[in-house]
Amino acid sequence: MAQTAQTLTKDTVRRAGDRSTTDSALAPAAAPYAARIEHVSKSFAGPAGAQPVLDDISLDVAPGEFVTLLGASGCGKSTLLNLVAGLDRPSAGSITTDGRPALMFQEHALFPWLTAGKNVELALKLRGVPKRDRRGEAERLLELVRLGGAYGKRVHELSGGMRQRVAMARALAQDSRLLLMDEPFAALDAITRDVLHDELTRIWRETDLSVLFVTHNVREAVRLAQRVVLLSSRPGRIAREWTVDIDQPRRIEDAAVAELSVEITEELRGEIRRHGRH
């Protein structure tokens, strides 16, 4: 279904994009953003009272943009991603997305009793795709992530990198405009991670998805993103942003990637020193 932005009220998470029932014949305009985060704060209850995790975060992700969230452990990166996904609600502020995002975790979270293809089909079923069309679409998505022919393989037959490819295909099966990724390659070896960086970049460029990607790896952030957003240590605030004006495809070892990574790393170290986080 085509989607449009709609009027917002404060302190909620919203999904822009439901077509009006009274104007269903009209073609809606595209939302000017994939995600809009406005003055969002989040606190959790603790023994000493409310513990702030995020403080006054405002950030837009444009349609088709790739943004990485970077920061030290405990700065609230994953918390922010969960808020955008709608898995939790902000304590203050508002979040709007152009439709419901797809979420990919560090762990593949595949169902081991299903084949690779059936794991992808499950997302298609939940999306309402007719049964007769699911296998063909699942095979197409597996082909997109370079797993053609793996439809019938069980999870235990797949390597770690292949499992993450299936998880990516399942996320893409949700047909979302916004893909949220929470350190999806952190547990992989360096070579596999490097290959999947290439694959993610290719898929992003082919599909025109918007991506919000959480990482603590500076070079990964620079290699992948059009924009890098650095969060301060807890409570997380936006400390600085960088536009990554380096042509794709990029390599981890590229001189321009290394140079910008050094600059961002120095900022990150400064944030850690200021807040005493390691």
Give a verbal description of the structure:
Residues 1-25 are annotated as: Disordered. This is ABC transporter ATP-binding protein. GO terms for molecular function: ATP binding. The protein folds into 2 domains: 33-101 and 180-278, 3-Layer(aba) Sandwich (Rossmann fold), CATH 3.40.50.300; 111-175, no CATH class. It starts with 12 loop residues before the first strand and ends with a helix. It has 278 residues and is of the alpha/beta class. Helices cover 34% and strands 24% of the residues. Residues 1-11 and 17-28 have low confidence and may be disordered. A 6-stranded mixed β-sheet has the order 6-7-8-4-9-10, sandwiched between helices. The chain has helices at residues 77-85, 116-127, 131-144, 160-172, 190-207, 218-224, 255-275; strands at residues 13-16, 35-46, 49-61, 66-70, 92-98, 102-104, 178-182, 210-215, 227-231, 238-243. α3 crosses α4 (160-172).
Question: What is this structure, in a nutshell?
Answer:
This protein is α/β, with parallel strands linked by helices and 278 residues long.
Task: Present the secondary structure layout.
Elements: E1 13-16, E2 35-46, E3 49-61, E4 66-70, H1 77-85, E5 92-98, E6 102-104, H2 116-127, H3 131-144, H4 160-172, E7 178-182, H5 190-207, E8 210-215, H6 218-224, E9 227-231, E10 238-243, H7 255-275
Parallel strand pairs: 1-5, 4-8, 4-9, 6-7, 7-8
Antiparallel strand pairs: 2-3, 2-5, 9-10
Helix pairs in contact: 2-3, 2-4, 3-4, 6-7
3D shape:
globular
Tell me the radius of gyration. Answer: 19 Å
CATH class of the largest domain: Alpha Beta
Beta-strand residue fraction: 15-25%
Percent helix range: 25-40%
Describe the sheet with the most strands: 6 strands, mixed
Number of strands: 10
CATH superfamily of the largest domain, please?
P-loop containing nucleotide triphosphate hydrolases
**CATH topology term of the largest domain:** Rossmann fold
Which CATH architecture of the largest domain would you pick? 3-Layer(aba) Sandwich
Quaternary state reads single chain
Please, how many domains? 2
N- to C-terminal distance: 45 Å
Please list the strands of the largest sheet in the order they lie side by side. 6-7-8-4-9-10
Low-confidence stretches: 1-11, 17-28
